Amino acid sequence: MEEEELCPCRPLLDRLGDRWSALTLSLLGEGPAYFGELERRMSPVSRKVLTQTLRGLERDGLVLRTVEQSPVVRVSYALSELGASLTGPLLAIRRWTDRHQPSVDAARSAYDAARPSPGVTALRERAAAGRATSVA
Question: Mind listing the domains of the chain with CATH numbers?
Fold first, then answer.
């Protein structure tokens, strides 16, 4: 059975959880922006990745793209009504992160400082080495 059949919301959750989409939506939540402005504010995102992110968000109906015809063609992006409905949930995640970042940092430090238990691969290699030694 296909993953999308098991969880039809998975592609959208993948989009919202990727590295750049939430940041893009948050910035556009402050108001429309031109591509170059988004690129500067989202550094070190590459032009290619930002383009892919914006296209995906536009495809999902979260972002509107407007081409402005003037002596220099400019493209601006804004949240659609659907995209704007994500502003609250994204803000809640940001507030949670701001409030709990010290606890997450402490947990990471404790985890990194503890002697990590060997992974499954290491355990299998040890077991195989033990069997090879006992056979010889």
Answer: 3-135 (1.10.10.10)
